[in-house]
């Protein structure tokens, strides 16, 4: 595929963007570290070197009261210019344009000095904001203009004004958060005045030849939000005020509707940017759940937008653009929209990264250095850890042989890819397999490497993965008992009533798999099915684009029952991702899964699963009991002999430690070991 539209330049009146690819804004938590701007320069510079047309930075606040959390980055005086120049110098040497995003958190600030149009506390912040006075509103506008002026001095080609996702500007626009009765509130024309005045004053401060992008909320996904007719009204006013480009914002952060996770269908929201593009005279950027060049090219062909914004895909692969440009899209390490190492890290105040690319945001700490001595490396196990280690070692110049005793590569990834809403794991498998091939890694399938063979190598890596742990329950050998692996690989069909023992990540996955099969479709559904499940009005004729959720078809007393059980007395899925756990819980509730906590397992017999729930005896009349109560290492049958080899032997992934194993740890350990080989 040529991607001719994706790589067509775009000529504005005063500048040219070399292609239609935008690296969207992401806060990385590097901005606040002592060496953060040096690391950011390397991070953005590597993406610019990879061919991105336009980069938009993570949000920088125009004043202290606009920060998202204590000690977050502010650009409000001359002293900050030099730091930002590190970034612009690193990016512009590759012919890439870069805009700094100006973000004022408003009531979303996780800090006590927050301000807002009205003193209404956000559900995602513990603080009630101070209501701005008229004079203070004027100051906020001036601060935006001053911040943009400083950004220009720092060498940025433009700024993006964050007017969506429920931040301060959006809070002025929507009547649910703006209860003012003065000239800044009341009717819609008054509520959008704040946004328009910011654009006017920024344009006046920076002059005509400076990119001014406005991120416009096309779909608020909160009650009493904007309708699409109101969105268009604001869009026209922004263009008249001096905006060069309009970016697409989808959903407020407090919305209880998923917008960017794996289960969201790809490009589901781009019909909104298509309607915006048809109505305005400036170029439009579309975004959300676009992670392949093929999807991006089709969106441009269908005139859904003029530019394609992808943020997390550039965490997963800094060379996304270069690979697509060279017709090597099969070599792209695709973002799987898991949020695990990016957003989840941000919410616990850690630097962002990526589970499929541990180097993301760690470029200065994790350089790939060619090996000074080329070694012969044997890797046992073709799961995620083994494949990743083989790739990283081969990239350094080592000659690698990968031994897998089964007839296909993938390990636990094969199971993950079968789970509804996690189909994107197939992309990770595709990437690994193609990368192994391109690096000439010798892959030996259906092979159990013996010690005589391994002795010929310079180093042996054991990455044999995990298997399900079998708990000590009376009747555990009953025919109705099955391990999670047999369920997810399809070797044991599951029908009727089911009890799932264990409600960690695997238990949730099994519940999704079973209910998805029973309902006939997965979470990765059509836009219509997904919208109905989550109450999304893609026409945005209703305020905020929210409607009542539709009940699951086929639910009722006659539907098969699925029980998700755990020993601990706490919320199910408490250890799931901070930004995704609630989505998995809501989905299983919608599917009718019954969640029981504080469960003790008594026995399994012909009647079903006998349990005590808070000291009350119950019998769950189930046809299957699926065990998801943990994992244990799988070691080679000759692992004791491996320790007697005269060559070094290293263990990674589940073979090293099965407890709390996930893809992030498996790939991270693979990278770290490969750099030491």
Structural account:
By secondary structure, the chain is α/β, with parallel strands linked by helices. The chain has three domains: 10-347, Aldolase class I (TIM Barrel); 376-459 and 634-640 and 651-676, NAD(P)-binding Rossmann-like Domain (Rossmann fold), CATH 3.40.50; 470-629, FAD/NAD(P)-binding domain, CATH 3.50.50. Helices cover 31% and strands 16% of the residues. The strands form seven sheets. An eight-stranded parallel barrel has the order 3-4-5-8-9-10-11-12, surrounded by seven helices. It has a five-stranded parallel beta sheet with strand order 15-14-13-16-27, with helices on one face. Helix 20 links the parallel strand 20 and strand 21 (594-596). Helix 18 packs parallel to helix 20. It is globular, with a radius of gyration of 27 Å. It starts with 9 loop residues before the first strand and ends with a helix. Mean pLDDT is 95; it is low at 520-524. Its EC number is 1.3.1.34. It is an enzyme of class 1 (oxidoreductase). This is NADPH-dependent 2,4-dienoyl-CoA reductase. Keywords: Oxidoreductase. It comes from Pseudoalteromonas undina.
Give a quick summary of the entry.
The chain has 22 helices and 27 strands.
List the helices and strands and how they pair.
Blueprint: E1 10-11, E2 16-17, E3 21-23, H1 36-49, E4 54-56, H2 81-92, E5 97-102, E6 115-116, E7 130-131, H3 134-153, E8 158-163, H4 168-173, H5 188-191, H6 193-206, E9 211-219, H7 228-241, E10 245-250, H8 270-279, E11 284-286, H9 293-301, E12 307-310, H10 313-316, H11 320-325, H12 343-347, E13 376-380, H13 384-395, E14 399-403, H14 412-416, H15 425-438, E15 442-444, H16 451-454, E16 459-462, E17 466-468, E18 481-483, H17 484-488, E19 498-501, H18 505-519, H19 527-534, E20 562-565, H20 581-590, E21 594-596, E22 599-605, E23 608-613, E24 616-620, E25 624-627, E26 631-633, H21 639-642, E27 649-651, H22 663-676
Parallel strand pairs: 3-4, 3-12, 4-5, 5-8, 6-7, 8-9, 9-10, 10-11, 11-12, 13-14, 13-16, 14-15, 16-27, 18-25, 19-20, 19-25, 20-21
Antiparallel strand pairs: 1-2, 17-26, 22-23, 23-24
EC number: 1.3.1.34
Enzyme class: oxidoreductase
Protein name: NADPH-dependent 2,4-dienoyl-CoA reductase
């Amino acid at each position: 595929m040529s991607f001719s539209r994706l790589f067509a330049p775009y000529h504005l009146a005063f500048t040219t963007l070399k292609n239609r690819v935008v690296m969207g804004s992401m806060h990385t938590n590097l901005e606040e570290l002592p060496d953060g701007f040096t690391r950011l320069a390397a991070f953005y510079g590597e993406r610019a070197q990879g061919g991105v047309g336009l980069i938009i930075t993570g949000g920088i606040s125009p004043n202290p009261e606009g920060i998202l959390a204590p000690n977050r980055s502010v650009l409000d005086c001359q002293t900050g210019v030099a730091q930002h120049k590190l970034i612009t110098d690193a990016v512009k040497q590759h012919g890439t344009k870069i805009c700094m995003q100006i973000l004022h958190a408003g009531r979303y600030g996780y800090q006590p000095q927050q301000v807002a149009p009205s003193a209404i506390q956000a559900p995602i912040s513990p603080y009630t904001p101070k209501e701005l006075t008229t004079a203070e509103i004027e100051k906020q506008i001036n601060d935006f203009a001053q911040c943009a002026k400083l950004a220009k001095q720092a060498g940025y080609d433009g700024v993006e004004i964050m007017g969506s996702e429920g931040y301060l500007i959006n809070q002025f626009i929507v009547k649910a958060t703006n209860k003012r009765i003065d000239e800044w509130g009341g009717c819609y024309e008054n509520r959008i005045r704040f946004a328009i005045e910011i654009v006017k004053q920024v344009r006046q401060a920076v002059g005509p030849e400076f990119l001014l992008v406005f991120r416009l909320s096309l779909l608020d996904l909160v009650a009493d939000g904007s309708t699409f007719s109101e969105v268009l009204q604001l869009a026209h006013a922004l263009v008249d005020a001096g905006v060069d480009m309009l970016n697409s914002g989808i959903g407020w952060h407090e919305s209880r509707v998923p917008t960017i996770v794996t289960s969201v269908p790809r490009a589901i929201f781009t019909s909104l940017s298509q309607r915006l593009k048809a109505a305005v005279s400036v170029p439009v950027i579309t975004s959300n759940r676009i992670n392949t060049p093929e999807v991006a090219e089709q969106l441009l062909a269908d005139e859904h937008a003029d530019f394609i914004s992808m943020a997390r895909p550039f965490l997963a692969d800094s060379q996304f653009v270069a690979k697509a440009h060279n017709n090597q899209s099969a070599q792209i390490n695709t973002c799987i929209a898991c949020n695990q190492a990016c957003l989840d890290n941000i919410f616990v105040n850690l630097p962002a990264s990526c589970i499929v690319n541990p180097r993301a945001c760690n470029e200065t700490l994790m350089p790939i250095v060619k090996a000074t001595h080329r070694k012969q490396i044997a890797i046992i196990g073709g799961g995620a850890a083994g494949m990743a280690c083989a790739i990283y070692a081969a990239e350094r110049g080592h000659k690698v042989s990968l031994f897998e005793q089964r007839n296909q590569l993938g390990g636990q990834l094969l199971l993950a890819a079968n789970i509804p809403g996690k189909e994107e794991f197939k992309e990770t498998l595709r990437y690994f397999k193609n990368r192994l091939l391109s690096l000439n890694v010798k892959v030996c399938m259906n092979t159990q490497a013996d010690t005589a063979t391994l002795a010929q190598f310079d180093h042996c890596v054991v990455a044999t993965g995990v298997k399900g742990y079998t708990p000590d329950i009376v009747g555990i050998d009953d025919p109705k008992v099955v391990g999670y692996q047999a369920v997810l690989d399809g070797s044991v069909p599951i029908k009727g009533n089911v009890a799932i023992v264990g409600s960690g990540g695997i238990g949730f996955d099994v519940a999704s798999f079973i209910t998805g099969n029973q309902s006939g479709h997965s979470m990765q559904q059509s836009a219509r099915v997904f919208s109905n499940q989550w109450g999304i009005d893609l026409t945005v004729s209703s305020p905020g684009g929210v409607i009542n959720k539709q009940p699951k078809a086929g639910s009722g007393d006659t539907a098969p029952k699925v029980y998700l059980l755990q020993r601990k007395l706490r919320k199910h899925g408490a250890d799931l991702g901070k930004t995704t756990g609630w989505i998995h819980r809501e989905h299983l509730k919608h599917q009718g899964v019954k969640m029981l906590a504080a469960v003790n397992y008594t026995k399994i017999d012909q009647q079903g699963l006998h349990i005590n729930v808070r000291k009350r005896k119950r019998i769950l009349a189930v046809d299957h009991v699926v065990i998801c109560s943990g994992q244990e290492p799988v070691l080679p049958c000759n692992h004791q002999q491996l320790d007697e080899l005269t060559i070094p032997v290293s263990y990674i992934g589940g073979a090293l430690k099965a407890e709390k194993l996930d893809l992030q740890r498996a790939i991270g350990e693979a990278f770290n070991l490969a750099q030491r080989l």
